[in-house]
Every structure is written in structure tokens, then in C-alpha cells.
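Allow me, if you will, to draw on your knowledge of protein folds for a short while. I have a record of one protein: its chain in single-letter code and its fold written as C-alpha cells. I remain grateful for any guidance, and I place the record below:
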Amino acid sequence: MAETSNRPALRVDIISDVVCPWCAVGYGQLAFAARRAGVQLDIHWQPFELNPDMAPEGEDLREHLAAKYGSTAEQSAQVRAQLTELGEALGFSFRFFDGMRIYNTFQAHQLIEWAGERGKGHAMKQALLQAYFTEGKDVSDLGVLVEAADSLGLEGAEARAALDSGKHADSVRQREALWTGQGIRGVPAMVFNGRHLVTGAQGVENYASVLEQLGAAESELR
């Protein structure tokens, strides 16, 4: 693995949702490529809701994908197997199961912002991805969200009060609108140094190429 360079950390805004499996994969691939290249990343998670109008009880994941994208049961199984394999290579465990549901994530994004104010936004994002994809939890459930805060050493009662009050709701809505207003319609979407947009989970080698190109461009500006 390459030694960490003396270059300042590279800012990456990752527009993403907690129930997006490709977001977990894309971040893992980027992080792997950065470690290998010795590039420090300054990650800023940005909110995006795949299903802003989702009912409180959520929907069966397979039925949701079939209705939204026309995916057959066979295609869904193939994608799950692919994601599971990709996750294993990156140290992330996808544990899909029959009857798995997909949920609205508006409160989850508020919790990430709340944790970010306490220096743990990135850790909270990772905790919620794991809660949903590895532990099969309902990330729209207030108890699950408070539990995630507790698991990071944050004050669960404060997290509950913040979510109950909706104090971060307007901010999250504004940030969501900012990115959709710039044409983001699918996630993951990554913006490097505020200028270079890369969409989808691109794979370790492609992210390595992006980092190399950004490094070369930075050198030319010096």
C-alpha cells in the first residue's frame, strides 16, 4: 500500500441514501482505492431519498424493485448475489433475506446531520448502512436510530429529542433540493473538490484512475 502523501485531504461530497446498496459499495471501492494510492479523503455525506413518499411501514424490497424498475425475481436474486460478493471483497456484509423491506430515510438523514455536528457524521452513515444491510433493521424506526447514536458513544436521549423536534428537517430538505437542483437523480453520486462529478459505483480501478487524474491536475496548478 502506498504511503500517505503530504497533499491536503481530497474533499468528496457523496450524495447517497442509507438504503442504497450501491452507495455502500461505491464508498467502499473509493476508500480502498484511496488507501492504496495514499490519498486522504475528506468525506461529506449529502442526503438523498430514493423513496421520499414511502409509507411509514415501508414496502417489501422485491415487490418495490419490481414495481419501480420492472426487476424480475431472478434479476433481483442475481443483483443480491453480486452485491454480496462485492461487499465481501470490501469488508462489508450484505445479508439480504426474503421479506426484507425498504423504508423512508428522512429521519435517518437528520440523524446523520445531528451526528455530524458532533464530529461523527461519517461514523453514523456507516452505522446506519450496517444496521440496514447487515443487521436487517428498520432505519426509519426512532428506536433503531437512537440505538445507533448510543452505539457511537453519543447521547441517545439527545438524538431522540432532536429527531422528535425535527430541528434538522429544514436543513436536510434544503440540502436534498440543492443536489437534485443540480441534476442529481440517482445515487451514489460523488463530487470531487466541488467540481468533478462521478456517478454510480465505478469499481476500485476506475476510482484509482479518478484519483490519479485529480492528482495530476492538482500538480499542474502548482
About this structure: The radius of gyration is 18 Å. Residues 118 and 154 are 8 Å apart (CA to CA). The chain has a mean pLDDT of 93. Strands lie at 10-16, 41-47, 59-60, 101-102, 189-192, 196-199.
